[in-house]
Amino acid sequence: MKKKISIIDVLFKEIEKEVVLTVEDGFSIIDLKPMGQMLVDSDHLSFIYIAEINDEYSYLTIPHSIWSQFKQALDLGSAVYLTDRIERIQLPGFMEELRYLIENIKENSNYGEEMVAKVESTF
Fold first, then answer.
1. Hey, how many other C-beta atoms are within 10 angstroms of the C-beta on 22?
2. Mean pLDDT on 76-86
3. Residue 34, SS3?
4. Are 25 and 9 contacting, i.e. CB atoms less than 8 angstroms apart?
5. pLDDT (0 to 100) of residue 1
6. Per-residue DSSP letter, 24
7. Domain-by-domain residue ranges, the chain?
8. Whole-prediction pTM value?
9. Residue 7 banded pLDDT, cuts 50, 70, 90
10. Residue 112 burial by Cβ neighbours in a 10 Å radius (0-12, 13-18, 19+)
11. What gap in Å lies between CA 48 and CA 59, rounded to an integer?
């Protein structure tokens, strides 16, 4: 079973060159294992970072409403971390995967007009 975990906040720390993503309240990341891969959910205008919890895939959902926070972080090559306000872990490959997906989505109608428009207007 795939569990969707919503990212509810993003904080870009320019001086530290890092981005901190906060998961939905009540979710613990203590057993989360980052997989270093991302997908696109065109139907929900989201990027998905794949993780594993107790040998089951979990999807960290990054909705379009917080994408603008990543623009400058992408340019700086910032590290990305995930927090549940108690624990904090790094998400390896996040920026590389995001950059790759953005380039693939631009001017590519296979992702749907709305997804392409959101990506092009944000990045």
1. 18
2. 95
3. strand
4. no
5. 52
6. P
7. 3-114
8. 0.92
9. very high
10. middle
11. 6
